[in-house]
Structure formats: structure tokens, C-alpha cells
Amino acid sequence: MLRPLALGLLALSACAAPPDLSATDTAAASRAPYPRLLPLGEATAAANAAPRFPPEEAAQLARRAGAIGTPPASGTGDLAERARLLRERAAALRDRQIADQTFPSGS
């Protein structure tokens, strides 16, 4: 069991790219059609620095969520989740209205 693992690790260590290719890799990454991934520390800092709803809007959103039966969030950090739940609930209500208009239950 250990022998194939050791051989695999040895093969992977032999596949390291020569140092002169790192500049090419960096140039290719800068032209990539997708944004570069942030390291965990930068991603956490960006998430913590993201704009939050003002307290008035947060309270209004909480009232609206409670009015349609969305479970309450634990704090302002859950506002994105609460907004997602509101969108899902609105889409479900819209789908139900369309179904009621398309297939009336009286006929």
C-alpha cells in the first residue's frame, strides 16, 4: 500500500515546473477570463469590509421576511441569506400564481 503511494509522490515531485516558466504562468493568469482567486485571508477581509444594510433597511427586511414566514436571521451578517430566501419565496409565489391562472381549480 505504501509503495504505490511513495512512487506516486516521487513521480509528482519530478514534475515540478522549471523556474523560467513561472513568468509565463503569471502572464497567462493575468489574461484569464475569470477573476483570480483570493487567498483565504484576503477573501475574509473582503467579506468583512463588504457594505452592510443600514439598520433601518435591515429592520424593514426583517419585518418583510417575518411577514412571509421566512425564519429570522441571527444578525446582520445573515442578510444576504435572508434576501436569498425572500427571492426564493417570491419566485415560488409567482410560480403558484401562474399555475393558478393557467390551470384554474374550478374547471
TrEMBL record:
Q: Where is this region: Disordered?
A: 57-79
Q: Which PROSITE patterns match?
A: PROKAR_LIPOPROTEIN (PS51257)
Which keywords does this Swiss-Prot/TrEMBL entry list? Signal
Signal peptide interval: 1-16
Protein name (record): DUF4398 domain-containing protein
Tell me the organism. Answer: Mesobaculum littorinae
